[in-house]
Amino acid sequence: MLAERGHRVTAVDIPQSNYAPFREFPVQDYDGRNLPFEDGTFDIVFSSNVLEHVPHLDELNREIARVLRSGGRAIHVLPSASWQALNLALHIPALARDALRLLTARKAGGAATPKEPCTRAQARLTDRALRRVLPHRHGEHGNALTELYLFSRFHWHLLFRATGFVDVRRYGSRLAYSGYMLVGRHLSLSARSRLSRLVGSSCHVFVMTKP
Questions:
Q1: pLDDT value at position 129?
Q2: What is the SS3 string spanning 113-161?
Q3: Distance of CA 204 to CAs 46, 96, 183, Å?
Q4: pTM for this prediction
Q5: Hey, which residues does 172 pair with through a beta bridge?
Q6: Confidence bin at 126 (pLDDT 50/70/90)
């Protein structure tokens, strides 16, 4: 969409990304650590729900600063503490939903035996159900509870300041949703916007400047 509006866009991702088979735009593979560009190449670096999955976050943020020109902007959309709190609150309902789907799949496909293993879909549902018995972390650091702090505006702000960015501003996305998507498309965007006034925005939008 940015390219269609006349901007010059360079996209990067790691080759083992879950989204690699679904690319709709030319994407340059990189090693996840070293951005393959000269210093001061870009006016803007943008990411959406990426940084929480990076184990070496300080290092990558310095790389982002390196490839930005002086005065360039970094814009990151990131999960919030409100999003993680909603995940924790909805964990049991999501677990019940997955268990119901698993039972339905087993009834439809017949009982699994050593000679007649579950279908791939049943195996996937089983794996999801087992993994969700206890809440699990979303990102690369901490656990499901400590992510309430790690995803807070305060923590993200400290991180960006520590890696040299200035004029760090934060906006809420004004949308509320969980990682479980229990009601999915049944809740409109306008309804999710209204809900965010009660439970908070599920994403931060950080805009900052390289000195």
A1: 55
A2: CCCCCCCHHHHHHHHHHHHCCCCCCCCCCCCCCCHHHHCCHHHHHHHHH
A3: 13, 29, 22
A4: 0.84
A5: 204
A6: low
